[in-house]
Amino acid sequence: MLHEVRFSLKDVCEWLSLAVLQGSNKILFNGVATDSRINCDGLLFFGLLGEKVDGGKFYREAFKNGARGAVVNAKVIEGEENQSSEIHLVNGKPLIIVNDTRNALKRCAQGYLKKLKKVRVVAITGSCGKTTTKEMVHTILTKRYKTVKAVESYNNLIGVSLTILSAPLDTEVLVLEFGTSAPGEIGLLCDVAQPDVSVLVAVGEAHLEGLGSLEGVFREKTTIVKKTKKGGVTVLNGDGLDVKRVEVPEGVRKIVVSAKSSDATVFAEDVHREGGSVRFKVGQLEGRLNTGAVHLVSNGLCAVAVADVFGISRESSLKSLSEFSPAKMRMEERFVDGVRLINDAYNANFISVCAAVKHLSGLSEQKRRIFVFGDMLELGEYSERLHEEVGRQVGESNIDVMVSVGRMSRIAADVASRYGFKKVYKFDNAEEAAQFLNGFVSEGDVVLAKGSRKIQLDTLITSFSCRKNRRREDGVA
Questions:
Q1: Does residue 366 have a pLDDT over 80?
Q2: Would you call 396 exposed, middle or buried from its count of C-beta atoms within 10 A (0-12, 13-18, 19+)?
Q3: Chosen CATH of 7-100 out of 3.40.50.1370, 3.40.50.980, 3.40.50.150, 3.40.1390.10
């Protein structure tokens, strides 16, 4: 529960351009909530409009759970009394009536950010690797600064706004994640929180349904560079995009990182796997990642570059980076009954799937390398071609077994077969695939699951855990 007073009703009125009520400076809030069912003690409740229901309908429940005020859409209170003002009291608590609670949340986040006098904003975007890079940056910066990061993948307008409004007043660094699936969304997020430091991790074939083409993705993603504050810094991953095409505004310093090109500002060399980790060198300093995924080194370099901007020594930042562990469902590893499971199933697009195929193909210490591939969604007219290309890459790899899950991934499996790949198994959904794998895999195998979130390949991991429990119940060691 939050206890620090963060803002007043007077602040909210000013942020939303409403008439300031007498005594509003005495009505104080500790933060915000969007779920009326939780403990809302001291919070300002925002009733957000969802796909099926308007959350504003539950403002009375939020009041019962301790909320000191609520912001709701005008339609929610049609037919109720006392609508003559944009703010009126319900049992002594302010009910703020607006036309769009989502926009009101954004404006409050913008206003509250100005109250954070010490804060600098680090904003991270990319077609893949955003969350991993965010976690790496936070791991390093939190050792020296009062740092707040986006929770999980809070990377849309609501998530970014909630992250800002969750920050204590003495926050020194906000580490935000900016996502997009349509033109203009990155620009809107930059308007909410203009970056002091922007990080562009990768540009690839993702959200093509909304962004139209790879060129459309490039234009949208590079908006974060154009919107970086004058006097700020932009960090570009040379291994994930063509940095020469990125126009950096006057007054913004550019840092390029790479694990492939020595021309980069921050360059890693001697990158190699060692057991379950990856080792590399930055200059004369040794670096290590607590994961076997070599392609995450460039994400780590982005974090090191951000640390440079904040005056943290390379030695310190690399030491902190060695303590980083991948976020849930992002190259997350576990062993069950001697089977190595790699859960990379949070989401999938073409660039991240290619990285997963390359990673699995290079794991020579395992008995069988099994690739569980679920459909890549939101690719529009490019979907069939990109699934075919995944099939080609699998067919030319060292992977031993391919398990496809979904309609489009069958296309990839068929292409892999045409390239001479013999062990291919096709399923319509994750449940069927899990049942097959429970009886198919054996000790010494490695299974990597990669697919779009809606395919739910993470259920495979749950299924294996259940299998282990069942074996114990049956007396099997």
A1: no
A2: middle
A3: 3.40.1390.10
